[in-house]
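Quick one: examine the sequence and fold tokens given here and explain what the tokens say about the fold. Here goes:
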Amino acid sequence: MFITENTYKDYPVQAYDDKPCRSNILDAIIDRIEYMTNRFSRVLFIRFDLRYPRDFYSSRGNDDIQRFFNSFTRYLSRKGIAFQYVWVREQSREKHQHYHAMLLLNGNLTKSSWNHMEKAEQLWQSALGIDYLGLLQRCDRSRDGSRHPDFIHLDRHDACYERGIDRCVEWASYLAKTRTKGYAPLNVREWGASSLPTEW
């Protein structure tokens, strides 16, 4: 199902060049934000992108992103930080696919994205088997080029808490856009997410 409105389940959704969003990806995003905000009084939301070097030979599947998240979630688990994530695969005219990701962390244990994104960049290089900086892109710039944090810190005790949740859904809705999707090989998934408990 495709969403063409600017709201979904009472949350704001971004419109991207008048292209619709996919409801199954929006559902995955909202479910994980609601799960984490119900479970923890503070949640750290982070957005980042993963790319390949221009001349890199990559598998047409999603082996690289799976290796990355296997390593990254082990790193977070060793630190005792509960997490949830959603990733999507996109490709337009470039040689390689690229990935957009949303990460949610227990904000009672961590308040900054910096160390986690430094580690994520190392683990993406490791997943590719190369030493090449700059492949993780922090989503810290607006379309007009102005700088902003690559994270949102949600605190249940803040007056702007509900607006903060809306901002997270709206920002993450970028992952659900249909533009630059539809180019994955047959039987290759275009998105994935961490598992949720069956009842929460």
About this structure: The longest strand covers residues 42-50. The two ends are 25 Å apart (CA to CA). The first helix runs from residue 23 to 39.
